[in-house]
Design goal:
alpha/beta, Sulfite Reductase Hemoprotein, domain 1, 3 domains, eight-stranded parallel sheet, about 25% strand, globular
Length: about 450
């Protein structure tokens, strides 16, 4: 078996190396001061790689300025350009950054042109020493692949292997691959299929793991930990990102804890486990609430996804400041069990939310809007509601949603029912009201 290593700046990703923790700026890349400041905070918090959105050529030049400012401060963290819908921008960004993330589903509309442009990108990356991430997302696979295989984990695997084969054909191996989804079952199945396919071919590329559009709070942390840990426990995954609709600095401690567990640097804070039939009862002594939430999801996420168990019970204590909080029989323990069951998609006790973490393409206050949508829709048990920052991945990634709220820019929002836009250009200050009116049947669906 040939295991590939990818090199991005001073970081090596791949088999035999530690799990690399990365995150992504949610600033506008063209706002150089804000972006440098956020990168600085991420670096200080322990991020090992930072991704920035590059929607246009002006952001390519801003990216150069950000890089130069950080290097002048001796911050040599690898920078990754996140590019959608323009292969020319990806090629230009490769001259500046340590890695370029492209999504094959929207790299170029014409597949033959996409292959030609990819060869150009490879040539630039080879010359400049930049890596490439082949970053597929469930819901944005492109018409060609979905027409062949549907919008399925198998389609994700087939698309990834097609582009990895293109890398091999171009004799270019400085490559990482990812297959993200907001559905933990889809995400885990897709990565397992990809790992099997790479092994059958005899060449295993480094894998980047993440649950995309995971949301925020306990739900976002648990959803991410369930998907990521299930794969890391099987030896799949070399670099991780926990995507939260929060300050991206908050992602790093969660991702670091998960990475350290599966690198053998940390152990679970679970102190006892009993199994009765298909019910697991676990006791924890956790140093913080975040560690408790993350460990609980890591310890039982895979077992729930794979249906080894059907129910969980949480006991023990965690430390909150200078006091110990007891979980036994508490409402909080019941709530965390419900959240874990929902993260593993075994039982839904509230709406399921899909929300992107935000980036430089987001044109409104995503975090506060998402929290307000959650507050006002909390009673809609079992409904899937998406809150997306922009149209790049929004409509695709929320393909499983019953309703979607997608920023257009210019303080306007498009509201989706399923995969179809039903209200366009809604003023942002009216959009949540309009969404609720549609859900509750108090307004007509127009399609305009």
């Amino acid at each position: 078996m040939r295991y590939i290593e990818a090199k991005a700046g001073n970081v090596t990703i791949g088999h035999g190396h530690h799990i690399v923790v990365q995150t992504m700026c949610n600033t506008h890349t063209s706002d150089i001061e804000a972006t440098v400041s956020q990168c600085r905070r991420m670096y200080e918090a322990g991020a090992e790689m930072i991704r920035l959105t590059v929607p246009g050529m002006k952001e390519v030049e801003a990216l150069r300025a950000v890089r130069d400012r950080l290097r002048a401060e001796d911050i040599d963290i690898p920078l990754v350009a996140d590019v959608h819908f323009s292969s020319d921008i990806a090629i230009a960004a490769a001259e500046i950054v340590d890695k370029v993330r492209i999504n094959p589903g929207n790299f170029h509309r014409d597949h033959e042109q996409a292959k030609a442009q990819f060869s150009r990108l490879v040539d630039v990356c080879r010359r400049c020493g930049a890596a490439i991430r082949i970053g597929l997302n469930h819901g944005s696979l492109g018409d060609r692949i979905t027409n062949l295989y549907g919008n399925t984990p198998d389609a994700m695997k087939e698309a990834a292997m097609e582009w990895l084969n293109m890398c091999v054909d171009n004799d270019f191996y400085n490559v990482v691959v990812s297959l993200k989804a907001s559905n933990t079952i889809v995400m885990v199945e897709a990565y397992r299929l990809l790992d099997e396919a790479m092994r059958q071919k005899g060449i295993v590329f480094p894998v980047h793991l993440g649950v995309t559009e995971a949301g925020n709070g306990d739900a976002g942390r648990m959803k991410s930990a369930v998907g990521i840990s299930a794969l890391l426990s099987e030896g799949i995954g070399d670099t991780v990102r926990v995507s939260l609709t929060e300050d991206p600095v908050n992602e790093i401690s969660v991702a670091r804890h998960i990475a350290d567990r599966y690198d053998g640097r940390k152990h679970s804070s679970m102190v006892s486990l009993s199994l009765e039939g298909r019910k697991a009862s676990a006791e924890y002594h956790s140093p913080t609430r975040e560690v408790l939430v993350t460990d609980f999801a890591c310890d039982f996420g895979k077992r729930l996804l794979d249906r080894e168990i059907d129910e969980v019970e949480l006991r023990g204590v965690y430390i909150d400041g200078d006091k110990a909080v007891t979980l036994d029989g508490s409402d909080e323990a019941a709530y965390l069990c419900d959240e874990l069951m929902q993260a593993a998609r075994r039982r839904f006790y509230r709406p399921e939310y899909i929300a992107c973490p935000g980036c430089g393409r987001t044109m409104y206050n995503l975090e506060s809007t998402f929290n307000e949508v959650k507050r006002r829709t909390a009673h809609l048990k079992g409904m899937v509601i998406a809150v997306m920052g922009c149209i790049v991945n929004g409509p695709g990634e929320m393909a499983d949603a019953d309703w979607g709220y997608v920023g257009e820019g210019g303080n306007k929002v498009t509201i989706y029912k399923g995969k179809s836009p039903v209200l366009r250009h809604v003023p942002e200050n009216e959009a949540i009201d309009r969404l609720l009116e549609l859900i509750e049947g108090r307004a007509a669906v127009s399609g305009e």
